[in-house]
Amino acid sequence: IGLPQRVPLSLLGQGMQRLMSLATHAYAARGGMLFIDEIEIGLHHSYLEELWAGIRRMAGVLDLQVVATTHSYECLAAASVSA
Predict the structure, then answer these.
(1) pLDDT (tens digit, 9 = 90+) per residue, 64-80?
(2) 0.90 exceeded by pTM
(3) Given phi > 0 = left and psi -120 to 50 = alpha, else beta, which region is 13?
């Protein structure tokens, strides 16, 4: 982000912390399954299509099956668009 030093993850907000958590759990589950409850929590709705595209790429690279839940219509719509 153009700063002279690194910024702690805790200062970047809940969304970034959530993405890092998903990424580390996905890597730990490689070759298996990853269950994600309320996948959209902490993320702005405008980012959801990119989130789903990234999850699809990550699942392919890590040979991972992802099962995610949501109550968000916007999240479901984004998943169908990014397919």
Answers:
(1) 999 999 999 999 999 99
(2) no
(3) left
For residue 30 the two structure tokens come to 């490689």
What is the spatial distance between Cα 58 and Cα 74, in angstroms, rounded to a whole number? 21
Of 38, 42, 41, nearest to 14 (Cα)? 42
Q: Return all residues near 70 (Cβ < 8 A) that are at least 6 apart.
A: 38, 39, 40, 76
Using CB atoms within 10 A of its CB, is residue 53 exposed (0-12), middle (13-18) or buried (19+)?
middle
Please give the torsion angle defined by the CA atoms of residues 75, 20, 10 and 4, in that order, rounded to the nearest 10 degrees: -110
Q: What is the C-alpha to C-alpha distance for residues 37 and 47, in angstroms, rounded to an integer?
A: 17
